[in-house]
Description:
The structure is a single chain. The protein is of the alpha+beta class. It is built from four helices and 29 strands. The strands form eight sheets. It has a five-stranded mixed β-sheet with strand order 3-6-5-4-28, with no helix packed on it. Strands 19, 20, 21, 22 and 23 form a five-stranded antiparallel β-sheet that branches. It has a four-stranded antiparallel β-sheet with strand order 7-8-9-10, with no helix packed on it. Strand 20 and strand 21 form a beta hairpin. The longest helix is centred in the first third of the chain and has 37 residues. The protein is elongated, with a radius of gyration of 38 Å.
Amino acid sequence: MTPPTDELTRMLQGAADDVLERGSVDAPDTPRLWSRGRRGTWAARAGAAALVAAAVALVTTVALVMRPAQAALPAEGAPVSYPEFVSELFVGAYRDGTVPVFGVVDVPAWGEGPPDRYVIDRAGLLAQVRGTNLLSTGGALAPDGRHLFTGEGVGDLADGTVVRPISTDATVLARTDTRVAWSPDSRHVLVDTTGGPAVLDTRTDVVLRPGPGDATVRAAGWRDTSTVLGLREVSVDGRTVLEVVTRPLAGGGWTVVSVVGGGDPGGGIAAVHASPDGTRILLLRTPSGGSGARAATLVDVRSGERIALGGSAANTPVDWDSCPPVWRGDQPLLALGGLREPGSRTAVLAFSGRLDVQCVSLAGDELTGTADPLSAGVERERVWRVALPAAGGLALVAVVWMLVALRRSRREGERFLPMIWVQRY
């Protein structure tokens, strides 16, 4: 064994003297380090909490705006309104209820099969009709929005049942699909039959039958709640004359109200539609050659004179689409893909364009109420336009935050991310 020496002692003393001669060594400022660490930790937690709060606020706002609107009738005495814009975001499912149906629209289904049907509400939102609901069969909506006339009979939209099936009456069985028009009080239905116009009540009982020679009369609509309005073609001196005629529900024959003036523009009459107030008739003629748009002419019932339509001259027919018109007052509107005035590109009622919307049909074929430019459909679209990029931005910030925090935790040897509160027991 090597005997102990004083060499090590002398070396340690020399090293200590050298340190003392160089001055004091700067030690870490412990309170400052702790303060800095606490600030960083709370900053990370505050940032994470802000991200979470923003995400929760975004999701809550979207959920509140995107949920189906609570359908309700306007307060007593308050005017009704209609939407200028209908949103197709987050379409709901239609359920029978006590709220009147504002309108319906068809959308071609994927592949083969009947089109899908959607209910339009006055809030500017859509609800899809599914299953065997009464509305899925199509038909004419009554002005009250509570009844529907279909090939099966008159249906009650409050519970989705057929009040009275179509009877086996010979007049009813002779009904065609050319024209169906509800009376303004929703108590009677005017239909075309092979023998002429007939009227049914809500029990599908025949209250007015076609008379002799009525096969030349086309059902147009209603002059009032108790008077039927029609159009009759007669031949005078080898030319066709169109007579506007009426017939009361109480019975009797047809009475000539006026004769359509302006000459015959040619082409057979494809359809006749009277305005809900009974003051105008829209004549739709088959185009020459059987192709192209139908030619529309607007006629005053009382005088028989033609009325300017779509900015054109009174005697100039206007191109019309394949859909029956929807009336706003005494003016007809084109109803394909929305509602717009003839000759105008500005929509009266527009859709967001996500669905291939076809013919729009409203209760009583009439657009009632005042325009609502800020309907629930508009608010839903606005929120979605903000929510979608905001959600993307939050997701990007959260991902970057997590990556930076994870890299820091690995570099500094931490077991957990600094933004997560860890409670050890």
